Amino acid sequence: MNSRAGDNERNERDSAIEALRASEEKYRGILESIEDAYYEVDLKGNVVRCNSAFCRMLGYSVEELIGLNNRSFQTPEVAASVYATFNEVFRTGTPAHSFDWAMIRKDGSTVVGEGSVHLVRDLQGEAAGFRGMLRDVTQRRRTEQALRESEAKYRGILDTIEDAYYEVDLHGNIVLCNSAFCRMLGYSAEELIGQNNRRFQQPEAAASVFATFNQVYRTGVPAHSFDWQMIRKDRRTITGEGSVQLVRDLDGKAVGFRGILRDVTERRNMEQALRESEARFRALTNLSSDWYWEQDSEFRYTRMESRRAGAGSIQNSFLGKRPWETELEIEGFGGWQTHRDLLAAHQSFRDIIMHRLLADGRPYYISVSAEPVFDASGAFAGYRGVSREITEQKIAEERIQHLATHDSLTGLPNRVMFSHLVANAIASAQRYQRNCAVLFIDLDRFKFINDSLGHEAGDQLLKEISKRFKKALRASDVVARLGGDEFVVLIQDLQQETQAATVARKLLSATLKPITLGGRDCHITASIGVAMYPQDGGDEQSLMKNADIAMYYAKDEGKNNYQFYSKDIRAQSLERLALETNLRQALEREEFTLHYQAKRELEKGRITGVEALLRWDNAELGPVSPARFIPIAEDTGLIIPIGKWVLRTACEQNVAWQRMGLPPIHMAVNLSARQFTDERLVQDIAAILQETGMAPNLLELEITEGMVIQNPEHALRLLREIKEMGVRLAIDDFGTGYSSLGQLKNFPIDTLKVDRSFIRDIATNAEDKALTEAIIAMGKTLQLTVVAEGVETQEQENFLREHACDEMQGYLFSKPVPAGEFVTLMTAHLQLTIL
Ligand code: C2E
Ligand code: MG
Ligand code: MG
């Protein structure tokens, strides 16, 4: 019945209640058994349910807690943050985890729970409250806080130290660094942390750092004081001197490295600079100095160190002595006194030269430099310095000085030195109201000797002449060589002009004595010009110039004499200058012509030939005699082109005359000494013969004795070559030189021209008459054609005919005439002889 149904109903309800209770019991059991706190609050935050762990956490009983709002066990700030979290969970429905919830226990102490919160919904799904778990992390948080604080403190300390601190992991990635480290590299901590240390190093530096770290890793032994080159953010390289040690975790496992770095860039740079400067100094002293020395405050040598092996022992003997007690001389004005004053004034000095003779007589020079030394209190303590042996340099310098002021061939002073001496002489002559003289000497015909005998013979001659000049002079007089064959003499302290004349005569006779060159006696003369101070020039330049002018005058006066300078001479020398200037342009201006002087057979009266004689007509100077301009042409070398022109013109003329129908006659052309030494002479003659079509046997070249006698080998070779071409040869002006016919017989000569000076006086001078007779006779025996020059009178002609002279040339028959006039002469003459 109902009761049964009622029982069933009750039973079912009971068992449901029982099941619920059992389930609740089970959950409660579980909740009670877990160590974490469990809570449930309604939407207002009032505790609805909690476990005993929650109660323990807050120090309240369950009864006290149920119905209590969470705000009552929280500070307002925490409550606000908890509210915010709950609110978020409420809005989103998403649970929150791991939030810290600081609560105030019943006893007033603080407890921190790390908790979670979930939304609780009723059966209808409406939000009804929150539940969650809380774990007591008070202790942990406290430890964490302590750790943070200690870390901050630690970091604070790290940041206050000036050295850079770093920690890297095993890969070398930076995990920690202090601000000094950041400053050192110029990066912020954020830029550095996590970066590999290689980023701040050159590859080579990184390799060496790696090696160090690796060693520390392997051995566990920290490394100290290793240099670590790094590149800053601004690309500058810096050097850190650092240490590194292994960082281990709690288990002792290596996890990285840490260490200190000190910026030593500047120090290293300075050390490097110091090393370099030290090396430089060492190199310098080694290179330039033999000795390092020190002196005490009394200037006594206290230390002598040789920097070079084998540096003599001379300087060792200086120890204990003062410089002026060492037997050294000192160079420079004032000598030792000046130097001692300088030392007393504690001044530094450079390259002071001291010298003495060594025991073996060799000179010994040192160059000394030093600076004063002051002690810490500033008191003078002495000197320290270096000295260097400069003997060789000194000798070289003296040699250079000598070379610069002396002529290397003769050892005589040169122009530079002479000018200097003359200037000095003038200065002192001025001061003491005295005279001095300059003699300008030029050797006559030196060029010819030099060219024909060779330079060696020329040099030998100059040396010999130098010696003779020196011997002929007083010690106070100076002879110098200006170059070539030019010498100058300075006579100082002259009382009278005649004294200068005496010296000039002495010099002339000194040259006259024959000089043996290559086994042959050579005759040389000189021409001397004299200029006196003060009347002929007030300074060195004008004295020299005027002596030179006077010398040229002496040359013009026939050489082998001396001349004093005068205003007249000056005018003449100016004329000579004008001649020379114009002569240089004469060829291109076509100012030269040839005149032809006939040569006539004495026996039959036939014209056998002509001599071509050069004429110069200058627009400015008028006609100039060859006697005046030929020597200048020789001196200047212009005779070579002029001579070629003469030869060509003469040959062309000869060929032209024959074309005109005149009978073939000889054409004589004069050769100068200078042409005779020209290497191309033979070649030129051959070419001209070839080009003009002149028959070689009609050409006769006139040379003088001197040209043959000076260098017979050369002359013989040359004359033979000319002869081989078929050209005839004549000796011109015979009798004026030093030669004899005996000497001439070895040469391939065809004609002998007796000099005009013999012919001139044959009528009056018995000696000339005899000589001329002898020349004609001997010429005949040598089978030469003998020609008499300068025949002006019938008397002379008669004499010559009587003595069987072959031909004659002279005004008596014909003066030298232009080519056209010669044709007239020749034509008239031909008709005459035919008739
Ligand atoms: P030289 O070769 O002995 O020539 C003869 C010189 O005597 C010529 O003088 C001539 O005019 C001159 N003369 C001829 N007959 C008489 C006379 O009866 N009485 C006098 N008082 N003089 C007479 P010029 O032409 O003045 O030549 C002088 C010297 O110049 C020549 O002497 C010769 O050595 C040289 N010379 C002339 N032309 C040349 C040339 O083309 N080349 C070379 N190298 N020298 C030349
Ligand atoms: Mg002649
Ligand atoms: Mg002559």
Characterise the protein shown here:
The model has no long low-confidence stretch (mean pLDDT 88). The protein is elongated and about 215 Å long. The chain has an eight-stranded mixed barrel, surrounded by four helices. A hairpin with a 2-residue loop joins strand 18 (478-483) and strand 19. It has 835 residues and is of the alpha+beta class. The longest helix is centred in the N-terminal third of the chain and has 32 residues, at 2-33. The protein is built from 28 helices and 33 strands. The site of one magnesium ion has 4 residues, from loops.
Major sheet size, sense and barrel closure: 8 strands, mixed, barrel
Strand order of the largest sheet: 24-25-27-28-29-30-31-32
Alpha-carbon distance between the termini?
Answer: 218 Å
**Helix/strand class:** alpha+beta
> How many strands?
33
Extract low-pLDDT stretches.
none
Hetero compounds: ligand C2E, magnesium ion
Helix tally?
28
